[in-house]
Amino acid sequence: MIEMGPFWLVTAAVIGANGLVFRARAERYGAESPNLKDGYVRLANGFMAWLIPPTLLIALGVFAGWSTKFAALPGKPSSSTPFDRFCQLTMLAILLRSVVWVFVQDGAQFLAAHRRVFQPAALPGSSLGVKVAWALMSALFVISWYFQFVSNRP
């Protein structure tokens, strides 16, 4: 089941490359708006810190033979291993943490104020718009996880 291992490594590399682009934008936009620079840099670093480790964990599990779900090619049903369930819970915890940050801890306001790092069109410019976008994105993640991990059992 090693065929998907390189996919997860490439995914981590793409996340890292995007993070570096976000960091370069943080420097550029931070020079234009010094009062926002710290927030821009925190967003770029947080993007990589929250997304690269779980992706590398999945890659490790695929290469080590601990995973069946993340190692399976799309469309091939497989059962979950304890490692797969651990990874799923880790991703769910990250999603729940992001929801708390956006909806309870002023993350929506922070994202709206610092959205230039991601490109202005990527996120709405208001807290309400960010909350609506985050709710839709979170719902889509949960639905996709349901189809991937619950409804696709052999």
How would the blueprint of this fold be written?
Elements lengths: L4 H28 L4 H28 L17 H22 L3 H7 L13 H24 L4
Describe this structure in words.
The protein is mostly helical and about 150 residues long. The protein has one domain. Helices cover about 70% and strands about 0% of the residues. α2 runs antiparallel to α3 and α3 packs across α4. The mean pLDDT is about 85.
What are its keywords?
mainly alpha; 5 helices; 154 residues
Compute the number of structural domains: 1
**Structural class by SSE content:** mainly alpha
Q: State the separation between the terminal residues, measured CA to CA.
A: 16 Å
> Percent of residues in beta strands?
under 5%
**Cα-atom radius of gyration:** 17 Å
Mean pLDDT: 86
Count every helix, treating DSSP H or I runs of 4 or more residues as helices.
5
Major β-sheet profile: none
Task: Summarize the structure in short.
This protein is an all-alpha fold and 154 residues long. The chain is built from five helices and no strands.
